[in-house]
Amino acid sequence: MGTPTRDRTGVLSSSPEQMIEEARKAFFVMFGLLAVVWLLQLANYADHYAFSRDHAVVSGDVGTLPDILLAPLLHWSWAHIESNSGPLFVFGFLAAYRGVARFLGLTLLITVTSGLAVWLFERGGVGTVGASGLIFGYFGYVVVRGLFDRHLIDTLVGIVMGASFAYLLTVAVPGTPGVSWLAHLGGLIGGLLGAWLFRDRHARADDGSSGGPRTATGSTLQTRTDAPRADLYKELGDLGLL
Fold first, then answer.
1. Which of 115, 128, 141, 167 could be disulfide-bonded to 191 (CB atoms 3.0-4.6 Å)?
2. Structural domains for the chain
3. DSSP letter for each residue of 61-85
4. pLDDT tens-place string over residues 101-117
């Protein structure tokens, strides 16, 4: 019970119980992350945002390099954290529900690429904090993950999210006042890179030599490669539908 199985294309699959369990873990991980962000905001506010000033990422300042890891958890105001909290939870949950361990690696990657983009290219003297780099990273990851994993449901989720929130990309380019478009762009690049680095590498077939549809016992269905439906079988197999 609860043991991963392989579907007829050789792709490792999970039972509905396992998927629900991973989704539950993702929910509590994101709830915990938001709790930490809001607790830091309370302490930050009580100290007149000294924490944000002390741990902001400043371009070219070597002393702020370690703050790349902390800056995404800090904000400059209540309006700042309120605008970030909803998207952070939604995109973070969608990024995490396929596996929390993979999500943690993704989060570290996005944090680094977003922070380095600010540290390397932001104009001097500007301190940058906020979770928007993570948001853009999770967004990019969710949009393209299904393509790299060849997973139909995730592909559909990515299409819906991409179409619904495409406007976010307008603040990942120069010209929006008061926001760090470099943090957004760096996070987005990290998310896209993460979708490739953390893609599902499980073999598509048990012996790695045949990608054709399989029977319940694992034997390859005998279909002629020149048959009219051969391409259809292959596409359905790649999408995990056979």
1. 141
2. 14-197 (1.20.1540.10), 209-242 (no CATH)
3. -GGGGGGGGTGGG--SSHHHHHHHH
4. 999 999 999 999 999 99
